[in-house]
Structure formats: C-alpha cells, structure tokens
Amino acid sequence: xxxNLPDFALGPVEVARGLIGCTLLVHGVxxxxxxxxxxxxxxxxxxxxxxVTARNKAMFGPxxxxxxxxxxxxxxxxxxxxxxxxxxxxxxxxxxxxxHGVNAMEARRGTSDLRRLCAGPGxxxxxxxxxxxxxxxxxxxxxxxxxxxxxEPELSIGSRIGISKAANHxxxxxxxxxxxxxxxxxxx
DNA sequence: CTTTCGATGATCT
DNA sequence: GATCATCGAAAGG
Length: 188
Description:
eight-stranded antiparallel β-sheet, globular, DNA-binding
C-alpha cells in the first residue's frame, strides 16, 4: 500500500501523525521523521496562543510552510504550519533517523554518534543547518523537501515533553521502536 | 539507569 | 524580571 504525504488541510494532530515515516531534507541533508509533536491553535502550550507576535507570525502563514524559532537562546526549532489557516497550528519536528548527508550532519553537530545526531528539536535543526532564514519558507525543492513514507509506520503515542502547560494531551507521535528518539515514549 | 543544573538570549509582562 | 516546545555534562543509584 503506497503512502502519501500528510494532508496539510488537516489539523496538527493528524499532520504530526502523518509526518512519522516521511523523509525531511534540507538541501539534500536529513532523514526519516521518527518523532513529532502537535501544537494546536487553541492550545495553551502553543506559541500561537495569545495571538500574532513578531516571533510567531510564520505560524499564522499558509500550511506547509516552516516556522523556525530560537529556543532557550541557543537552539533553533523547526515546525511545519497546518490548518486551520491563519490560526497558528503547527507540528514540531523532534527527531530524525539520519539517512541523507550523514557526513554533513556529523560535521555540523560535532559528533559522530548516529543515535544522537538528530535526537531532539535543537539537534535536528543544527544537523540540517536550519536557522532563522528558514522561518516562513515554503516546502519544496531544492531547499526543503518532504518525501512520503515507504512503508506503513507503526506509531507510539504519548504526552508532549518539555512543556509546563497543557501537558496532558497525547500529541507526541513517534515511530515505534525507533532508537533515534529524543526520549522514549512513555507507555500509554 | 536517573536527576540536576548551567548556558544563553529573545520574548513577553 | 520571569519564562522558555533545549542540550549536554556532571553527579548520584
């Protein structure tokens, strides 16, 4: 059964689920998405909660564009914008299984530990060379490519991590059994 | 294996 | 002035 890219006409929870198993490439470098979290438009934990600001305005742009922000003053984090249009819903890409351009990623990350190369949102952005210049960018070659899964992924589902508000929603999705996750998914 | 903590700066109140 | 969708090193079991 052939799988497709997630339908960005759907909300962030469906898109986050659908992104697992897709391949994300930035200028040809990246890997298979094994972990993603949904941030909805009416979600207290979402940067969009409370309306448009200078930082989050890309979240309110068209679906299938990027929202990139600086976390803790140190780490870039990469999101994909979803419907509803103009409401600020997005999916945070949290971990990849490295497949393309491993040498480049090792150089950027300063490690050759394959397992930790893209294990966490800050690590993903660093490995792929993502920074503020990608904020608001539209998905499409050559800079930003998203390829569909080659097989039906089996999922693990858990609560989002690293947040203090609205932490109870089961909006963290992962490829079951992957050893490239930022953290294990707690059993339901 | 786990928990704790410092780095570091933009953002928002 | 407080918070923060993080990371990695260090210390403890």
